[in-house]
């Protein structure tokens, strides 16, 4: 499979090769097009996201004990209303957002809302990625679902080649479904039309990935696995502070925060190919985070898109001393200008996001400047969250 990192293109650092990378672009000059949109909309500042990854719903057909997104059972979760989806499109258009990634929960448990959003986004913002556990990959549903996605405009993006990301790990979706989706995509679409990726999440206790089961099953059902078409994302489950009753995660080994800082890439530099950066995360409640990592620190939450305008939130992100320090320093290593190595050498954690969380606290102690993210905990996640005073069922 195609490993992450093979094709990374950063704004101002050389040419872009279209149709390469997990998040491939269709254009040789995507950054020029994106900048032109920002200029026309009057969007300035160091932090201007190329993508928002948003939860269409936090409902899911599965109940994974280590769910990174904190998904809820079908009966308990919330789904964006039609009015909320329309409101988001207005906000996305206002800041010239180039693409969105639709996630959950499981987006395909609310197909009407999924297709409606896609149809209304057509020509305004690209549907760059849809993340799914593949529950629709049965023999009866697979082909019709892909036909419906095409009918909703999935292949008609302006900048990005759309990506289907199928996540496997603790999910109970049969791997046969996942294999069928992959086979249908690679035989019915070219890599200039639709990309396919498998996100394999392993338990940190044994680091075992189900992707190897998937490879064996695919070859049994369809022959040689299409390694040249399928992008691979291999991760280990991490703790998520938004998931209150998550099963304990025991990840062996510790790494100093200093080492994490040195290895951190610049997640605020406009980037396509391996990633789409900067990328924001919006929970189904409307809470917006300046980073789309599933275990993003709560203090990187800067507002609520159903209570405030996207422009207001962007202004708040750009006024953040911590974000500015990370951006100016081209990654977490920039925080070393404020937090000394004697402090970061003595702290250990198990991830980039874990080191970011520790660094925010130390940064605040050193500067006396508090990040606003904790305020998100005061927002009431109403089942029918209102859009600026309007009530919706």
Compact description:
With about 400 residues, this protein is α/β, with parallel strands linked by helices.
Descriptive report:
With 393 residues, this protein is an alpha/beta fold. It has helices at residues 30-41, 82-94, 111-121, 142-151, 175-188, 211-222, 257-263, 310-318, 321-328, 341-344, 352-367; strands at residues 2-3, 9-10, 51-55, 59-60, 72-73, 99-103, 126-132, 163-168, 195-202, 230-236, 255-256, 271-272, 279-282, 287-289, 301-304, 348-349. The longest helix has 16 residues, at 352-367. Helix content is 30%, strand content 16%. The protein is built from 11 helices and 16 strands. Mean pLDDT is 88; it is low at 374-393. It has a single domain, classed as TIM Barrel. A 10-stranded mixed beta sheet has the order 1-10-9-8-7-6-3-13-14-15, covered by helices on one side. It has a two-stranded antiparallel sheet with strand order 2-12. This is Radical SAM protein. InterPro entries: Aldolase_TIM (IPR013785), Radical_SAM_PqqE_MftC-like (IPR050377), rSAM_sf (IPR058240).
């Amino acid at each position: 499979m195609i490993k992450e990192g093979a094709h990374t293109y950063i704004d101002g650092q050389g040419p872009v090769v279209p149709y390469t990378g997990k998040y491939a672009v269709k254009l040789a000059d995507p950054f020029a097009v994106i900048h032109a949109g920002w200029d026309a909309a009057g969007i300035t500042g160091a932090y201007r996201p190329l993508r928002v990854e948003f939860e269409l719903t936090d409902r899911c057909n599965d109940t994974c004990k280590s769910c990174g997104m904190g998904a809820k059972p079908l009966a308990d979760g919330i789904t964006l209303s039609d009015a909320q989806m329309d409101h988001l499109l207005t906000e996305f258009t206002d800041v010239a957002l180039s693409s969105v990634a639709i996630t959950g929960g499981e987006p395909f448990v609310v197909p009407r809302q999924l297709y409606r959003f896609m149809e209304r986004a057509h020509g305004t913002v690209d549907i760059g990625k849809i993340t799914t556990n593949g529950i629709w990959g049965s023999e009866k549903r697979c082909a019709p679902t892909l036909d419906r996605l095409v009918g909703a405009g999935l292949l008609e993006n302006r900048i990005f080649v759309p990506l289907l990301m199928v996540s496997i790990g603790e999910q109970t979706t049969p791997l046969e479904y996942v294999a069928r989706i992959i086979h249908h995509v690679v035989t019915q679409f070219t890599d200039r039309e639709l990309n396919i990726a498998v996100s394999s999440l392993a338990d940190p206790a044994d680091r075992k990935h189900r992707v190897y089961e998937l490879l064996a099953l695919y070859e049994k059902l369809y022959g040689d696995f299409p390694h040249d078409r399928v992008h691979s994302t291999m991760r280990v489950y991490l703790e998520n502070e938004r998931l209150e009753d998550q099963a304990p995660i025991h990840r062996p080994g510790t790494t100093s925060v200093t080492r994490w800082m040195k290895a951190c890439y610049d997640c605020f530099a406009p980037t396509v190919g391996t990633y789409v950066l900067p990328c924001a995360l919006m929970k189904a409640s409307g809470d917006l985070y300046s980073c789309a990592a599933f275990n993003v620190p709560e203090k990187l939450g800067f507002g609520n898109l159903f209570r405030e305008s996207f422009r207001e939130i962007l202004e708040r992100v750009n006024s953040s001393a911590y974000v500015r320090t990370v951006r100016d320093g081209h990654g977490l290593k920039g925080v070393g200008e404020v937090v000394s190595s004697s402090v970061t050498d003595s702290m250990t954690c198990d991830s980039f996001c874990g080191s970011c969380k520790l660094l925010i606290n130390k940064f605040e102690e050193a500067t006396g400047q508090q990040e606003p993210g904790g305020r998100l905990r005061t927002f009431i996640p109403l089942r029918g969250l209102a859009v600026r005073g309007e009530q919706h069922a």
